[in-house]
Write a structure and sequence with these properties.
Helix content: 55-70%
Number of strands: 5
CATH class of the largest domain: Alpha Beta
Protein name: ATP-binding protein
GO molecular function, one term: ATP binding
Strand order of the largest sheet: 2-3-4-1-5
CATH superfamily of the largest domain: P-loop containing nucleotide triphosphate hydrolases
CATH topology of the largest domain: Rossmann fold
Keywords: ATP-binding, Nucleotide-binding
Shape: flat
Structural class: alpha/beta
Pfam family, one: AAA_22
InterPro entries: AAA_22, ExeA_AAA_ATPase_DNA-bind, P-loop_NTPase
Largest sheet: 5 strands, parallel
Strand content: 5-15%
């Protein structure tokens, strides 16, 4: 655990605290982390902080000792524009894009530099209470002892008190219907106060369209609230891969072409291939 890495964590943490609004809110949004610990890091009082805790904080705020340089891909620019519009004007949008197109990374970058923006990476096992728990956690709100109704009321109250808040539901297609209906509730109670963006693969648009045809509860309402439109991302282009390769130390044309062909439009694969080429694996 080098001093350089600790300084990197401190610098990243300072931005994270500023984005959340205070050390207490930042601590509440992190698992297993107290405000006192954050204060120790920021004040260079390191003697009682274990390496495990340093890594815990670093991983949760997106600080890594491994060098990787991101670039503004075509989809990154589209996503950024949609998120900015949603946050500034309290609009609601739905985005669809292939797995590995860089959606999640784009969301993480946006929320780290834009105050009052909250990212939820949805999961299949979430019930209504877990959904609200996760949202309150990223908002840095203490929800201990709250019922589901009280949690929802607290979310609405906090968001209405903020300037231009934004909720991003990544991998929204993983949510079961009972939780997806909460999107309708959030929209109804936060209309013109909070932007909301749903994002997933095209499975989400297919699911919504199928639900409408089968007249399933809530699906017409969801479709109406997203403007009856899914914004489709463009996917990973050769230009995108070229820029990523050059930013990360690969500039010969043959290697770039090979990486693009092998990646099949998946940026995770691009990263693996760049590592393989640089390390001659």
């Amino acid at each position: 655990m080098t001093t350089e890495f600790k300084n990197q964590v401190k610098e990243k943490l300072a931005g994270y605290i500023a984005q959340k609004g205070s050390q207490n809110k930042a601590a509440n949004s992190l698992n297993g982390v107290s405000a006192a610990l954050l204060s120790q890091i920021m004040n260079d009082n390191h003697q009682n902080i274990s390496e495990v805790m340093w890594r815990n904080v670093a991983s949760q705020i997106g600080c890594s000792s491994k060098k990787w340089f991101c670039v503004e891909t075509t989809d990154f620019k589209i996503i950024s524009k949609v998120l900015e519009d949603a946050q500034q004007h309290a609009h609601v949008f739905a985005l669809t894009g292939d797995a590995g197109s860089g959606k999640s990374m784009s969301f993480e970058i946006y929320t780290k530099i834009n105050k009052n923006s909250y990212l939820l990476s949805c999961a299949e096992y979430w019930n209504r209470k877990e959904f609200l728990t996760q949202l309150l956690t990223v908002m840095g709100v203490d929800y201990s002892g709250f019922s589901v109704a009280e949690m929802m009321n607290e979310i609405v109250k906090k968001l209405k008190s903020q300037e231009s808040p934004l909720i991003i539901l990544d991998e929204a297609d993983k949510l079961p219907d009972t939780v997806l209906y909460f999107f309708i509730t959030l929209f109804n109670r936060l209309e013109e106060h909070c932007g909301i963006v749903l994002c997933a693969t095209d499975h989400l648009s297919k699911r919504i369209n199928k639900g409408i045809k089968l007249n399933r509860k809530g699906y017409k309402e969801i479709n109406s609230r997203i403007g009856r439109r899914f914004i489709e991302l463009k996917g990973v282009s050769f230009t995108d891969v070229t820029q990523i390769c050059m930013a990360n130390g690969i500039d010969d044309v043959k290697s770039i072409k090979d990486i693009f062909t092998d990646s099949e439009g998946d940026l995770r694969r691009v990263k693996r291939k760049i590592h393989a080429v640089k390390n001659k694996i």
